[in-house]
Amino acid sequence: MKKALRLHTPLTGEICTGLRTGDVVLLSGIVITARDVAHRRICEAINRGDEPPVSLKGETIFYAGPTPAPPSRVIGSIGPTTSGRMDIYTPTLLEAGLKGMIGKGKRSSAVRESIRQNHAVYFGAMGGVAALLSQCVTAVEMIAYEDLGTEAIRRLDIVDFPLIVINDIEGRDLYEMVMIGNDHLY
Hints:
Layout: E1 5-8, H1 13-17, E2 24-33, H2 36-48, E3 60-62, H3 90-95, E4 100-103, H4 109-117, E5 121-124, H5 130-133, E6 137-144, E7 153-167, H6 174-179
Parallel strand pairs: 1-2, 2-3, 3-4, 4-5
Antiparallel strand pairs: 2-7, 5-7, 6-7
């Protein structure tokens, strides 16, 4: 297995250009959470010419809705949700400066092309280990859309959050590479 790359947010086009499908990453820094309805609201604001509730420049969005924090913890379980549900909104967000996305599952060809055009990256996070992933979160702050409950936009401070590059700026897709038997990834 490849040695993990240590990255820190905010991401830049240069950082994303250096990443390749199959790279294992330990990400630290600030990411935001957002899911379907938050994505729709952000895109509606952008399409109206309004500023979204958070700047997307260099930002990384984690497609997650954390559970409430138990006593003595900053956050409850936090695992990735299926990314394809955000595909309709993703090109707009990438054009607004978004550089990284964290989720699970395949992305559409339109999203992969937008990732390539905007020098961004899509990371996969392991599903089924939400309680363990929450241990990588050191601070949480509500940012916007509190009415959405667990799906509100939150700012997370993360340390060594384990990820794998699924889609890189060359248009490669880890799922497709594995399906056709490209064993050169590891």
